[in-house]
Structure prediction request, 300 residues.
Amino acid sequence: MSNTEINLKSLIGDNTREEFLTLLKSRTPFVSHGNSESLKGLTSLPFLNSVEDLADCWRDTVDVFNPEVADEISKASIPPEDALHEYQYGSCILFNDVNRITPEFDRWNQDIRREIGFSELTYVRNLVYATPAGKGNAPHFDQNFNFVIQLEGTKKWWLADNTTINNPMTRHVIGHPVDSELGSYTAKDFPESFPKDCTEYILEPGSILFVPRGVWHMTEAVTDAVSFNFTFTPPTWIDLATTALREKLSHSEKWRESAIFDDSGADNTEFNQLLNGLSADAKNWNAEDFLEVTENQEIQ
Ligand SMILES: [Fe+2]
Prediction:
């Protein structure tokens, strides 16, 4: 069994872990071809043999993208046999949270998460996209990191640097309304079309593409194409700080009080006292105090 395990090494081609982390932190994509042997543990799973085999054992709905939008923001969730029919008639379909199929996936996901150094609060999942020839995804970026494994067929990807915003906390599709929080910390306007300065990648069975968080991408299948994603959405420092702070403050009866504004309104006396106490405490905080709340594992 050990030679068929999927781990970080299976996903990063010729890169060492350190080289991969440098790419990840600098938001640099990479592609690696000819990994069929090292991905055998994944690709030889019977239910990943074909879209039909996956649909056969799928006990949930499947997402079908609206061809006009070509993105998950406009989709219908329908039974697998209907989704297969839609796929055969030219619609992109998505099997969400494929990790529910076998515990092996969650074990691999968590091992890879730990190897990368992502927090225990990371949302990890696997997705299978089936894209008919000539179809693909509208230009967008995601807030997560993706390893795309091509299982079947040929698919073109175009990737471009995001010069509008670094470290976005939500995804954005070109030509669609901007999420209000994303808009609030993005000073520049988002482009109205895919950046011309982009790189084309052609994925074939055994290819792996690493798509870092925030990088613009769009796709088009050359032939009918099936891909398997390892998708990691790690918490930001904001998430870790606010999660741990909430846990710490919850031990205080005063902080747990229902917020009722006194006559001084925004200059609320009681809240000011709590904040003054918090800022005095904050001087003594360090990472360990916060991470002991969010991470159960031993901090190195
Ligand atoms: Fe995406």
The two ends are 29 Å apart (CA to CA). The pocket of fe (ii) ion is lined by residues 140, 142, 217 (CB under 6 Å). The mean pLDDT is 94.
